[in-house]
Write a structure and sequence with these properties.
Largest sheet of chain A: 6 strands, mixed
Shape of chain B: flat
Number of helices of chain A: 9
Distance between the termini of chain B: 18 Å
Strand content of chain A: 15-25%
CATH topology of one domain in chain A: Rossmann fold
Mean pLDDT of chain A: 87
Strand content of chain B: under 5%
Shape of chain A: globular
Number of domains of chain B: 1
CATH superfamily of one domain in chain A: P-loop containing nucleotide triphosphate hydrolases
Number of strands of chain A: 9
Oligomer: heterodimer
Helix content of chain B: over 70%
CATH superfamily of chain B: MetI-like
CATH architecture of one domain in chain A: 3-Layer(aba) Sandwich
Distance between the termini of chain A: 34 Å
Order of helices and strands of chain B: HHHHHHHHHHHH
Low-confidence stretches of chain B: none
Chain lengths: ~260, ~270
């Protein structure tokens, strides 16, 4: 299908240590449509983060293929959001969000203008000259997202980006981030162990098996809801059903694993 | 966090601040009193011939000797040369250790190969090298600066390299996700995160450089406080000797304060 931005086929990856090798991923296949928000859940330690590292090119697969199809037929830009915001305390927020542009020597006027607009759109304009420690957890996470978006990636990889936040912040920040990603029209892959987060944010949820990871089940999510906010998603009539079904698949896997 | 000003804060807060200030005032006063007591006791014992002032001198003799050396200007040349040698050694140690630690960080193979040699060189008493340096480099400022470097540099390399290795791996991962290479990782994540380690290593270096310079001056100098100490001990001018040691104390403290001042300035700026 031409609308697939990313296709993963029969991927295999193992970690090697002196005491032996551990297969992290084996026979993993799935594809992601352009503009789709895909959530991946799985038992802890099943190699979820490894998948993102492989897609980002930080690791090389031992076998199998990862095919990209960007908007212009080229390899799409990939943005990666880590578990913690990793803002550098020795840089101002402005210097933090432009770090990627600085590294790639792309500090051009239009790029900086775009970053400035994002800071303004997402409520950080007044904090550009502040240090990260002066921001709340939610603002820091938004700054981290803007840093990722500054390079204009087509695909966003989100590795449990809310897991370090407390529950209340987490709800509002995940709602924020979900809204920003939709507004910017990005394709997103979210790794999470929080099922309610997966169901409320994603268009589709993949459940992985325990290590070595492959796809165990797939749930397209269609919720009847008044707006796009993840909080209204939690009130949708179908929400509980999806939650329970995914929960069953997952606990089934945990018992087998 | 809300901070209250002096006018708005509670009685308990005012009491707390007062107690805090009182404590620090007490410590300051006791420090001065201890020094004064020591000087008075020393002077008294010398005056009453309880100690032999030929060997132990006395504060008044030290003060007179100090003034005399200030007047004939000989003191300034001794202090000047020791300071110069120490500062040059310190700057070279700081530069060389940064460079070497960067190379070790860059190549894991190199660091593993060199590790045992660094450990041996670091644990060797460097004063043992001084006679060798004299034979190789002759007597003079080069030998003394090299002695200053040799005392501090190996420990500095090890502590900086260890500091570099402790930089947060997730911050390094972030640089990679933004498309950075190892150079970017080093200059944007590792080096800025290591500034506190670099500063604390500098505080150690300045003291060790002075130790090395004094050892060097003992053996290979015609000027400098180390030379003055050795010379005056040989001619039994113990007042000069003690004066030199006291000046050395002041210099060591002054140099340390300067580096510490730089550290405070850096912390405040953040």
């Amino acid at each position: 299908m031409t609308s697939d931005i990313l296709k993963i086929e029969n991927l295999f990856f193992a970690y090697h240590t002196l005491t032996g090798e551990t297969a992290a991923i084996s026979g993993l296949s799935f594809s992601v449509r352009r503009g789709e928000f895909l959530a991946i859940v799985g038992p802890s330690g099943c190699g979820k983060s490894t998948i993102l590292s492989l897609i980002a090119g930080l690791l090389e697969p031992e076998s199998g293929g990862i095919t990209f199809c960007g908007a212009d037929g080229k390899k799409p830009g990939i943005g990666y959001m880590l578990q913690r915001d990793q803002l550098f305390e020795w840089r101002s927020i402005w210097k933090n969000v432009t770090l990627g542009l600085e590294i790639q020597h792309k500090l051009t006027a239009p790029n900086l203008e775009r970053v400035k607009k994002m800071l303004a759109d997402y409520g950080l304009a007044d904090f550009a000259s502040k240090r990260p420690s002066e921001l709340s957890g939610g603002m820091r996470q938004r700054a981290a997202l803007i840093r990722t978006l500054a390079l204009g990636p087509e695909i966003l990889l989100l590795d449990e980006p809310f897991s370090a936040l407390d529950y209340q912040t987490r709800l509002t920040v995940s709602a924020d981030i979900g809204r920003i990603i939709k507004a910017e029209g990005k394709t997103a892959l979210l790794i999470t162990h929080d099922l309610s987060e997966a169901v409320s944010l994603a268009d589709r949820v993949l459940v992985l098996t325990s290590r070595p990871a492959r796809v165990k089940a797939e749930f397209p999510i269609r919720l009847t809801r008044p707006d796009d906010s993840p909080l209204s998603a939690r009130k949708a009539p179908e929400y509980t059903d999806y939650f329970n079904q995914i929960w069953e698949e997952l606990s089934d896997e945990k018992n087998n694993g | 966090m809300k901070k209250t000003t002096a006018e708005t804060c509670s009685q308990a807060q005012r009491d707390f601040i007062r107690a805090h200030k009182r404590h620090h005032r007490f410590v300051r006063h006791m420090r001065a009193a201890l020094l004064l007591l020591f000087l008075l006791l020393w002077e008294y014992c010398a005056d009453q011939n309880l100690i032999d002032s030929f060997f132990f001198s006395s504060p008044s003799r030290v003060a007179a000797c100090f003034l005399e050396m200030v007047q004939d200007r000989s003191l300034f040349s001794h202090i000047g040369i020791t300071l110069l040698e120490t500062v040059v050694s310190f700057l070279l140690v700081t530069g060389l250790s940064l460079l070497a630690a960067t190379l070790l960080w860059h190549s894991r193979k190199l660091s593993e190969i060199l590790e045992p040699y660094l450990v041996v060189l670091n644990s060797l008493p460097k004063s043992a090298l001084a006679p060798l340096l004299i034979v190789w480099l002759g007597t003079g400022i080069n030998t003394i600066i090299t002695a200053g470097i040799s005392v501090a540099v190996f420990g500095a390399v090890i502590s900086l390299y260890t500091g570099f290795l402790q930089a947060d791996p997730e911050k390094q991962m972030l640089i990679r996700t933004l498309g950075g290479n190892r150079r970017d990782i080093f200059f944007k994540a590792v080096l800025p995160a290591s500034v506190p380690v670099i500063l604390s290593s500098m505080k150690v270096n300045i003291g060790l450089a002075l130790v090395g310079v004094i050892i060097g001056e003992f053996l290979a100098a015609r000027r400098g406080l180390g030379y003055l100490i050795i010379y005056s001990s040989q001619v039994f001018q113990l007042t000069v000797l003690i004066t030199s040691i006291l000046i050395l104390c002041a210099i060591a403290m002054g140099l340390y304060q300067i580096v510490q001042g730089a550290e405070h300035w850096y912390k405040k700026r953040r």
